[in-house]
Fold this sequence. Notes:
137 residues, mainly alpha, 3 helices
Amino acid sequence: MLARIARREAMMSLAGTLEQEERSASLAKRSRAMARDYGRRPATGIAADLRELSALASGLAGLAKDADAAREDARRQADWEVENLAETESRLKRLERRSAEARRALHNAMENRDQPPTVGMARKLHSQEHKRTRTKT
């Protein structure tokens, strides 16, 4: 039961990490495109406007760089999550296999408990009983 919960948690964590990676990649792509667009605008207007436009383009470029770094972090986290999920899956399979073996052993023990002793055991007991009766006579 706990192994199944751990598996579900690992899968949810991996999904969240992959989603974060995708969001970061999308943000980086949009930020680069916006920075490129603002950087290409014609240099017309007063100096203050040009400085603001340049600052905006620079800020967008920085945002794209940060988003790329976040995407890379999410990629590394996703790699770790995949390993964790694989270990959890392996642990779950191992526990399920042990559980099935234990159920089979219990089932066999229950069946054997209800069966009469084997013929060899009966002969041995019979033989010992026969020896006792001989010695008494």
